[in-house]
Amino acid sequence: MNPLGSVHYAHHSLRELLDLMPPAAHPSPMNNPSDQPKTAGLALAALGVVYGDIGTSPLYALRECFHASHGLPVTLPTIVGLLSLIIWALLLVVTVKYLLFVMQADNQGEGGIVALMALGQRHREESAFPLRIGSVIALGLLGASLVYSDGIITPAISVLSAVEGIEVQTTAYQPYTLPIAIAVLLAFFAIQSHGTGRLGGWFGPIMLLWFVTLAVLGITSAVQTPEVFVAFSPHHAVQFLADHPTQGFAVLGSVFLVLTGAEALYADMGHFGKTPIRLGWYGVVLPSLVLQYLGQGALLVRQPDAVTNPFYLLAPGWFLLPLVVLATLATIIASQAMLSGAFSLTNQAIQLGYLPRLHIRYTSASQIGQIYVPSMNVMMLIGTISLVILFGASSNLAAAYGIAVAGTMVTTTLLMSVVARRQWKWSWPAVILVTGLLLIIDLSFFGANALKIPHGGWLPLLLGAGIFLLMTTWHGGRRLIAKHLWSKMPQLTTYLTDVLAQPLTRVPGTAVYLTQFPDLTPPSFVQNVRHNKVLHEQLVFLTTTTARIPTVTGSHHVRIEPLAKGVRRVVVQYGFMETPDITRLLAACRTQGLDVDLDGATFFLSRVNSLATPKPGMALWRERLFIFLSRNSQRASSFFHIPAEQVVEIGVVVEI
């Protein structure tokens, strides 16, 4: 990021561009016996962050498979066929696609749709101004937009489905279900400003208790009806689809609900590592989920009328209320993971230049990843509460749920094909074979979810389209500004030669000019010289750049170049998961010979005032939208952590 709002991509060495480590290159924490307790602890923590969403799917997934709109009979062959589809969906999508394939695409150990998009673009050469929205970036932004949609729907359907458990014992509580769910969500969003550090320590143990509960309830029921264990054979899944071709395709949209949250395995890879996430899946999550679904299926074989809520009807009467409380806690944790992911995604999108600068608060002095974005929290609160009120029941929301996740999975597979070809140097036949098979699965689920569009599936698509529009508009507007400045501003070295040759007064102190491009003269410097006709004794032209890697260390981080006596050019490169802090940076530059008196320095920023015009570039209404976003973005001085009393902003009007 930079004060003018454009990302300037930096060169990387060939070693960095190809630094995509294969599985064998990563030392496994389990190889050293002394690291095993640490790995086990990370696996426990991963249960609370990574597996919250997919772990709460049993609340509604199998119930939705027997939704009245599908018209499926609650019989043993149908139940076994659905269970087989569920089991093999978990195995093929989560185990094969994500754990064995997608998680190999780590961007310096980080995962997620933005990291994957950046990894797919790391082969690009440096450009004079930000890249156009190409196919890779468009896919990444589309996937990110759908993640936001998922983040709004997940808390609504999860909390609603948990609270609805109180209706199982008696319908007398039905009028209170909605108010209780809204109250829980309001409290959940309200505590975000305090951070989740203290609560985070409880997430893992609570989710471990949740998964143990799922397994115990499931196996207790399944052993009473052992016929359901034949569902492990994929033959029954194929037979079900053959017996119910039309209904079978439609029901895939409900089967897909067991996979919601699978993207979190990849997105949180940087926090926990591959081994703890895999250990949690194989050791706890997968067995618990499979046993739970088998138990629900066994219950339906014995009591077909339990299809109204097979999860809660698995529990004995005395355990119903504690189960509701535990389920509510589990759904809150799942929602927390989604919201924290949205905060992290927002921060990455800002750094890469796809969202305007927003106020970001750090809620932990020791963990930089724990952030709070107030404006994003408010918007997601409004969206989630609106969904609860609009749809009223988790069953109604299920129609809207899934298509956003399915769309994200499709974009992940497509981006993976780019990485496999460009970074891993796979042959085209290998890329087509592997990603083609994965795409068949993803597109099948996406197509089935597309049938829900008239019944609520339009909502996440509409939300995603709106967010995608905002991202591309912001990127496009910034590019137009960058292009204008590139064509109008003189070269820095040439302009400095002319200015230093003039008899201008040199005043004491240091002037730090934040500039978008290191080779161009910042507008603030041109205007200051033109109107004030003075120069400071020490001039620093500072450019911050955002690389397509999470963090930047070593010699790539800071480059200091003397241009003349008392004049230096400083180019700083940050990763897309780092936050620029100019004052800390300049203090650290003292070790490289640049001594800036921070208390006496003056920071000059160019404040761009955009003017919408019918010029070629963007539609006029999008230009006005960009101007609105620009005016409501966080001030550059706050974003770069510069003391406000030491900042001088000089305006420049740019027609876009």
Taking pLDDT < 50 over at least 5 consecutive residues as the criterion, the unreliable ranges are 1-34, 125-130
Question: What is the percentage of strand-forming residues?
Answer: 5-15%
- CATH classification class of the largest domain: Mainly Alpha
Number of E strands: 8
Give average pLDDT, whole number: 83
Major sheet summary line: 6 strands, mixed
Distance between the termini: 20 Å
The number of domains? 2
Q: What does the radius of gyration come to? A: 27 Å
CATH homologous superfamily descriptor of the largest domain = Amino acid/polyamine transporter I
The tally of helices reads 27
Give the class from helix and strand content and strand pairing: alpha/beta
Shape: elongated
Q: What is the annotated CATH architecture of the largest domain?
A: Up-down Bundle
Helix content: 55-70%
Kindly report the spatial arrangement of strands forming the biggest sheet: 5-6-4-3-7-8
> What is the CATH topology descriptor of the largest domain?
Amino acid/polyamine transporter I
Q: Your description of this structure?
A:
This protein is α/β, with parallel strands linked by helices and 656 residues long. The protein has 27 helices and eight strands. It has helices at 14-17, 36-49, 52-55, 61-65, 76-101, 113-120, 135-163, 166-169, 174-190, 197-222, 234-243, 245-255, 263-267, 269-272, 274-302, 310-313, 320-352, 374-391, 394-397, 403-422, 428-450, 458-488, 492-500, 523-532, 582-588, 620-631, 636-639; strands at 361-362, 371-372, 505-514, 534-546, 558-564, 567-574, 602-611, 647-655. The protein has a six-stranded mixed beta sheet. A two-stranded antiparallel sheet has the order 1-2. α7 packs across α9 and α7 (135-163) packs antiparallel against α22 (458-488). The chain starts with 13 loop residues before the first helix and ends with a strand. Residues 1-34 and 125-130 have low confidence and may be disordered.
